[in-house]
Amino acid sequence: MEIVEGFQDSVDNDKNNLNREFVGKFQLLVPSGIFSFSYYNGSTIPMSEKEKKFEHIFLETVGILCCILGSTAIILETEFRLKTTVHAITGVIASCLILLSVFTGTCTNGHGVSKRIMKCIHVVTGVFGFLASSLCFVLGLFRPSVEKWVPVSSVIPFLVIFCILYTTAVVLSPLKNCMKG
Question: The whole model's pTM is what?
Fold first, then answer.
Protein backbone atom coordinates (compact mmCIF):
# COMPACT_ATOMS: atom_id res chain seq x y z
CA MET A 1 0.00 0.00 0.00
CA GLU A 2 2.90 2.35 0.77
CA ILE A 3 4.30 1.99 -2.74
CA VAL A 4 0.97 2.98 -4.30
CA GLU A 5 0.67 6.03 -2.02
CA GLY A 6 4.26 7.02 -2.79
CA PHE A 7 3.57 6.62 -6.50
CA GLN A 8 0.44 8.78 -6.26
CA ASP A 9 2.40 11.50 -4.43
CA SER A 10 5.00 11.34 -7.21
CA VAL A 11 2.29 11.65 -9.89
CA ASP A 12 0.69 14.60 -8.06
CA ASN A 13 4.05 16.35 -7.73
CA ASP A 14 4.77 15.80 -11.44
CA LYS A 15 1.38 17.28 -12.33
CA ASN A 16 1.98 20.29 -10.04
CA ASN A 17 5.43 20.83 -11.51
CA LEU A 18 4.03 20.63 -15.06
CA ASN A 19 1.39 23.26 -14.28
CA ARG A 20 3.97 25.55 -12.72
CA GLU A 21 6.32 24.90 -15.63
CA PHE A 22 3.85 26.61 -17.97
CA VAL A 23 3.89 29.69 -15.74
CA GLY A 24 7.70 29.51 -15.55
CA LYS A 25 7.95 29.55 -19.34
CA PHE A 26 6.25 32.95 -19.21
CA GLN A 27 9.26 34.20 -17.22
CA LEU A 28 11.58 32.96 -19.97
CA LEU A 29 9.64 34.00 -23.08
CA VAL A 30 8.46 37.48 -22.07
CA PRO A 31 11.95 38.89 -21.39
CA SER A 32 13.14 37.38 -24.67
CA GLY A 33 10.30 39.21 -26.40
CA ILE A 34 11.14 42.46 -24.64
CA PHE A 35 14.82 41.97 -25.45
CA SER A 36 14.10 41.46 -29.17
CA PHE A 37 14.22 45.24 -29.72
CA SER A 38 17.39 45.72 -27.67
CA TYR A 39 20.77 46.41 -29.20
CA TYR A 40 22.22 44.09 -26.54
CA ASN A 41 20.45 41.08 -28.05
CA GLY A 42 22.88 39.58 -30.53
CA SER A 43 20.36 37.29 -32.21
CA THR A 44 18.23 40.18 -33.48
CA ILE A 45 21.01 42.43 -34.79
CA PRO A 46 20.75 41.20 -38.41
CA MET A 47 16.94 41.42 -38.38
CA SER A 48 14.89 44.20 -39.92
CA GLU A 49 12.53 46.21 -37.69
CA LYS A 50 9.58 44.26 -39.13
CA GLU A 51 11.22 40.93 -38.22
CA LYS A 52 12.04 42.19 -34.72
CA LYS A 53 8.43 43.28 -34.26
CA PHE A 54 7.20 39.85 -35.38
CA GLU A 55 9.60 38.11 -32.96
CA HIS A 56 8.48 40.43 -30.16
CA ILE A 57 4.79 39.76 -30.79
CA PHE A 58 5.31 36.00 -31.25
CA LEU A 59 7.38 35.51 -28.07
CA GLU A 60 5.06 37.70 -26.00
CA THR A 61 1.97 35.87 -27.29
CA VAL A 62 3.39 32.41 -26.58
CA GLY A 63 4.62 33.58 -23.16
CA ILE A 64 1.23 34.99 -22.23
CA LEU A 65 -0.51 31.82 -23.46
CA CYS A 66 1.82 29.74 -21.25
CA CYS A 67 0.94 31.97 -18.30
CA ILE A 68 -2.79 31.66 -18.98
CA LEU A 69 -2.61 27.87 -19.42
CA GLY A 70 -0.48 27.39 -16.31
CA SER A 71 -2.59 29.72 -14.17
CA THR A 72 -5.80 28.07 -15.36
CA ALA A 73 -4.38 24.63 -14.60
CA ILE A 74 -3.35 25.74 -11.10
CA ILE A 75 -6.79 27.29 -10.45
CA LEU A 76 -8.55 24.11 -11.62
CA GLU A 77 -6.12 21.93 -9.67
CA THR A 78 -6.85 23.80 -6.43
CA GLU A 79 -10.58 23.69 -7.22
CA PHE A 80 -10.83 27.50 -7.04
CA ARG A 81 -9.46 27.58 -3.46
CA LEU A 82 -6.99 30.33 -4.19
CA LYS A 83 -4.54 31.51 -1.57
CA THR A 84 -3.93 35.19 -1.01
CA THR A 85 -0.18 35.02 -0.60
CA VAL A 86 2.24 37.74 -1.66
CA HIS A 87 3.35 35.37 -4.44
CA ALA A 88 -0.23 35.05 -5.74
CA ILE A 89 -0.96 38.77 -5.46
CA THR A 90 2.21 39.76 -7.34
CA GLY A 91 1.27 37.21 -10.01
CA VAL A 92 -2.16 38.78 -10.45
CA ILE A 93 -0.65 42.28 -10.55
CA ALA A 94 1.90 41.13 -13.14
CA SER A 95 -0.84 39.55 -15.26
CA CYS A 96 -2.98 42.71 -15.17
CA LEU A 97 -0.05 44.96 -16.10
CA ILE A 98 1.05 42.64 -18.91
CA LEU A 99 -2.50 42.54 -20.31
CA LEU A 100 -2.65 46.35 -20.11
CA SER A 101 0.67 46.43 -21.95
CA VAL A 102 -0.75 44.13 -24.63
CA PHE A 103 -3.76 46.40 -25.04
CA THR A 104 -1.65 49.56 -25.31
CA GLY A 105 0.78 47.76 -27.63
CA THR A 106 -1.99 47.06 -30.10
CA CYS A 107 -2.89 50.76 -30.06
CA THR A 108 0.56 52.01 -31.11
CA ASN A 109 -0.10 51.92 -34.84
CA GLY A 110 -0.93 55.64 -35.07
CA HIS A 111 1.38 58.49 -35.99
CA GLY A 112 2.94 61.46 -34.27
CA VAL A 113 2.59 62.38 -30.62
CA SER A 114 -0.19 59.91 -29.83
CA LYS A 115 1.94 57.02 -31.11
CA ARG A 116 4.89 58.06 -28.92
CA ILE A 117 2.66 58.42 -25.86
CA MET A 118 0.98 55.03 -26.42
CA LYS A 119 4.37 53.42 -27.04
CA CYS A 120 5.71 54.84 -23.76
CA ILE A 121 2.61 53.64 -21.90
CA HIS A 122 3.07 50.23 -23.53
CA VAL A 123 6.74 50.10 -22.50
CA VAL A 124 6.16 51.35 -18.94
CA THR A 125 3.27 48.96 -18.24
CA GLY A 126 5.26 46.11 -19.79
CA VAL A 127 8.32 46.95 -17.68
CA PHE A 128 6.32 47.18 -14.45
CA GLY A 129 4.48 43.99 -15.40
CA PHE A 130 7.79 42.23 -15.93
CA LEU A 131 9.15 43.61 -12.63
CA ALA A 132 6.06 42.27 -10.83
CA SER A 133 6.49 38.96 -12.66
CA SER A 134 10.13 38.74 -11.58
CA LEU A 135 9.14 39.50 -7.99
CA CYS A 136 6.48 36.79 -8.23
CA PHE A 137 9.06 34.37 -9.63
CA VAL A 138 11.52 35.09 -6.81
CA LEU A 139 8.80 34.75 -4.17
CA GLY A 140 7.77 31.46 -5.78
CA LEU A 141 11.29 30.13 -5.33
CA PHE A 142 10.79 30.18 -1.56
CA ARG A 143 7.64 28.08 -1.59
CA PRO A 144 7.91 24.70 0.16
CA SER A 145 7.17 22.78 -3.06
CA VAL A 146 10.21 24.35 -4.77
CA GLU A 147 12.42 23.74 -1.76
CA LYS A 148 11.47 20.03 -1.96
CA TRP A 149 12.02 19.99 -5.72
CA VAL A 150 15.48 21.65 -5.69
CA PRO A 151 17.91 19.21 -4.07
CA VAL A 152 20.57 21.73 -3.10
CA SER A 153 19.49 24.75 -1.07
CA SER A 154 22.33 26.88 -2.44
CA VAL A 155 20.74 26.84 -5.91
CA ILE A 156 17.91 29.19 -4.89
CA PRO A 157 20.15 32.19 -4.04
CA PHE A 158 21.88 31.82 -7.43
CA LEU A 159 18.48 31.80 -9.15
CA VAL A 160 17.48 34.94 -7.24
CA ILE A 161 20.72 36.73 -8.18
CA PHE A 162 20.37 35.66 -11.82
CA CYS A 163 16.75 36.87 -11.89
CA ILE A 164 17.75 40.26 -10.46
CA LEU A 165 20.58 40.73 -12.98
CA TYR A 166 18.51 39.51 -15.94
CA THR A 167 15.53 41.65 -14.95
CA THR A 168 17.77 44.71 -14.67
CA ALA A 169 19.27 44.09 -18.12
CA VAL A 170 15.86 43.52 -19.71
CA VAL A 171 14.19 46.52 -18.07
CA LEU A 172 16.87 49.18 -18.61
CA SER A 173 17.00 48.98 -22.41
CA PRO A 174 13.30 49.67 -23.16
CA LEU A 175 13.09 52.39 -20.51
CA LYS A 176 16.17 54.09 -21.97
CA ASN A 177 14.65 53.96 -25.47
CA CYS A 178 11.31 55.26 -24.19
CA MET A 179 12.97 58.23 -22.50
CA LYS A 180 14.85 59.09 -25.72
CA GLY A 181 11.56 59.47 -27.52
Answer: 0.77
